[in-house]
UniProtKB/TrEMBL annotation:
It comes from the Eukaryota. It is found in: Membrane. Keywords: Membrane, Metal-binding, Sodium, Transmembrane, Transmembrane helix, Transport. It holds the Pfam family SNF. One of its GO terms (molecular function) is metal ion binding. It comes from Mesocestoides corti (Flatworm). This is Sodium-and chloride-dependent glycine transporter 2. PANTHER family: TRANSPORTER. The chain crosses the membrane at residues 12-39, 51-77, 116-143, 155-179, 185-206, 227-250, 270-290.
Length: 342
């Protein structure tokens, strides 16, 4: 596991898959923290969470990797002694359709070696895995519900709609491994584009101002965001994201039948991305032409990022909740549950 294969450093897919895996594990670029931020206070510590969460996520992933590698090697060496180490490594590189192979294949193999206790542990493992999936789904449900609420819909209806939408969208992947594989392939890579869009929002706002006003001056008892972060957001992240996507696409075009429409292909990926982009662009164009405004700003709760002078100093801070600015109709339903701004 810790023996480097230097030739893989020339494969863009390695970097793309690593970035997408971290983006999925930490929900970076998925918009989840946009929903969570609605419940952040000035004392929450966004920078602290932003540093510690990826660190602990990667430590857990490394621990799981050690467990899986040890299981695969010990099992295959005993059951298939004719297999060489390179052949075993080649088997492990195939994670199964929709990235289901390592967990759902090798964990039961490991537990089966422990007899009756292994069956109990295996059941507990997958029970915990189910709980992890449910807890993660709560965040995604909240993301959709919070987005619907932004349009003035009451909480109960927004949550109900979020549950129904999530269920209907997830059914095809649940009943077809081909669809699951396609969605994992296409939208896993799309997380890089989504993260790049979030980066673009910060650049549009002004990263220096964002660091100083939105993070360092607004937060209370949080870690300071260093100046190097501005360079990372303005230079490193855009170059890395765009460079990896272009490199990955170029290699696919030059080495594979990228134009073939199949479960995992560059053409399929671009087609599905294009469909979503056209839908979003069409909706935005329709609202622009009709001059519709669904998200009217409110001064009753939250703070306008373009008017930092309205934010009270830290010493005057008592107990506020920085909820995103919603339409007045929605705020009037729930405003009683929050303390008004000073």
């Amino acid at each position: 596991m810790f023996t480097a294969d230097w030739s893989t450093f020339l494969d863009p897919l390695i970097y793309v898959e690593a970035a997408c895996q971290n983006a999925f594990d930490t929900a970076a670029g998925m918009g989840v923290f946009s929903a969570y931020a609605a419940y952040f206070s000035r004392k929450t510590g966004a920078v602290r969470y932003g540093v510690l969460l990826p660190i602990f996520n990667n430590l857990v992933s490394l621990t799981c990797g050690l467990t899986i590698f040890a299981t695969v090697f010990s099992t295959l060496i005993q059951t298939s002694p004719t297999l060489t180490i390179p052949q075993i490594v080649a088997l492990m590189k195939e994670s199964g359709p929709g990235s289901t192979g390592l967990t759902f294949t090798w964990i039961p193999v490991l537990m089966s070696k422990l007899g009756v206790m292994g069956r109990i542990l295996c059941g507990l493992f997958f029970l915990c895995l189910s709980f992890a999936g449910v807890s993660s789904m709560i965040a995604y449900i909240e993301l959709t519900a919070r987005t619907i609420q932004d349009f003035g819909v009451k909480r109960i209806w927004a949550t109900s709609a979020s549950l129904v939408i999530t269920f209907l969208v997830g059914v095809p992947s649940a009943v077809s491994i081909e669809i699951l594989t396609n969605q994992d392939f296409v939208w896993g890579f799309a997380l890089m584009i989504s993260g790049l869009c979030y980066c673009g929002l910060v650049i549009h706002y002004n990263p220096l101002r964002y660091r100083q006003v939105i993070v360092n001056e607004f937060a209370i008892s949080d870690w300071r965001l260093p100046t190097i972060w501005v360079f990372v957001m303005v230079v490193v992240v855009p170059i890395e994201a765009i460079g990896l996507i272009v490199w990955w696409a170029y290699q696919n075009i030059t080495t594979t039948d990228w134009y073939v429409i199949k479960v995992e292909s560059l053409a399929t990926t671009f087609i599905e991305w294009a469909i979503l982009a056209i839908l979003l662009a069409g909706l935005n164009l329709a609202f622009f032409i009709c001059k519709l405004s669904l998200l009217n700003s409110s001064t009753e709760i939250g703070y306008d990022p373009y008017r930092p002078e309205d934010i009270p100093p830290a010493l005057e801070y008592e107990r506020t909740r920085e909820i995103p600015i919603y339409p007045n109709g929605y705020i009037s339903d729930d405003i009683a549950t929050f303390k008004s701004r000073p």
